[in-house]
Amino acid sequence: xxxxxxxxxxxxxxxxxxxxxxxxxxxxxxxxxxxxxxxxxxxxxxxxxxxxxxxxxxxxxxxxxxxxxxxxxxxxxxxxxxxxxxxxxxxxxxxxxxxxxxxxxxxxxxxxxxxxxxxxxxxxxxxxxxxxxxxxxxxxxxxxxxxxxxxxxxxxxxxxxxxxxxxxxxxxxxxxxxxxxxxxxxxxxxxxxxxxxxxxxxxxxxxxxxxxxxxxxxxxxxxxxxxxxxxxxxxxxxxxxxxxxxxxxxxxxxxxxxxxxxxxxxxxxxxxxxxxxxxxxxxxxxxxxxxxxxxxxxxxxxxxxxxxxxxxxxxxxxxxxxxxxxxxxxxxxxxxxxxxxxxxxxxxxxxxxxxxxxxxxxxxxxxxxxxxxxxxxxxxxxxxxxxxxxxxxxxxxxxxxxxxxxxxxx
Length: 410
Prior knowledge:
Blueprint: E1 2-7, H1 11-26, E2 34-40, E3 44-46, E4 60-62, H2 63-67, E5 73-76, E6 78-83, E7 88-92, E8 98-102, E9 105-108, E10 112-114, H3 131-143, E11 155-159, H4 163-177, E12 186-191, H5 205-215, E13 218-221, E14 225-228, E15 232-235, E16 240-242, E17 245-248, E18 252-254, E19 271-272, E20 285-287, E21 292-293, E22 295-296, E23 301-302, H6 307-325, E24 339-343, E25 349-353, E26 358-362, H7 363-377, H8 385-391, H9 401-404
Parallel strand pairs: 1-2, 1-9, 2-5, 9-20, 11-12, 11-17, 12-13, 19-21
Antiparallel strand pairs: 3-4, 6-7, 7-8, 10-18, 14-15, 15-16, 22-23, 24-25, 25-26
Helix pairs in contact: 1-6
């Protein structure tokens, strides 16, 4: 019996498992001949791109209803060590016991996490990096009307004007206005660099700025947060903003489990992988999603830490680990052309194509596409093994890209 072990139950992990199971089925192998196991601390696949929305508890899918029907074994546990020499992963189960899982091929798909700052008052910060974090923020926001009417009760400061910061800042405008009159609501977006959406480039910036202006979001560029209190924020220029809610979105890094894997890593902690998503220098270890510094050959650059890239990486990595064990040819990783779809709260959204991020759609036309992506396309089929396997494998695309090719500017 050969063993494929996948660490992580997110987009990359789930699609790695599905793609390995698909090749196993296509080759007529029994589950006992090629065992596929996913180890994940949680029971659910969290739909992380939606955690900026209200009611985040809805943003999850039971892993057993996705993986069970295709014969993928699941272990609930927190990985504490990876021994690549002995090909053993150590994890702690929920009952506190330790378990060791051997593997013939490993896919590290444990994702990424926000970089928490060490500034004074950091314990008062909220984030939407995890389901627990998003749920905590959601509960806090809903309780704001119960607080005394101090200044800043309905003020939110969002730190970081990147993709996540823009989505939660614009979304909070609507969420707060559902609780209080518009003239009491204030959202302040703080960015230490001198531009909003610094990683998004110039293309969508006018549309983003238009949306921020329309929603009344205050933008503070070239400043950072120096201290956070329970009801105020002190900025590096000396400004004190009364605020009951401070959300941190600045900076991401790969899962700390990458530290157990020998080899080079980039500035985000991602593992250097070859064209098959195999970690360079390690025959038995592959990486996918936010743990992998994977290169898009046709575009000539390392892909982003995003759902858009994690999903196809999982499909290629899962296929390749199974093919590797079966002595078959591996498939070179090639994602579909890069697009972005940035939600801008009540102001709509903006859709761009290519790394130059040419704007294809804006406002509510773009928002319709964002809803379709968030509510349909990024969800794996549940209780439907035939449909799940039809979408698995490196040749299976993601429907979001097909209509994007024919978008006209709006």
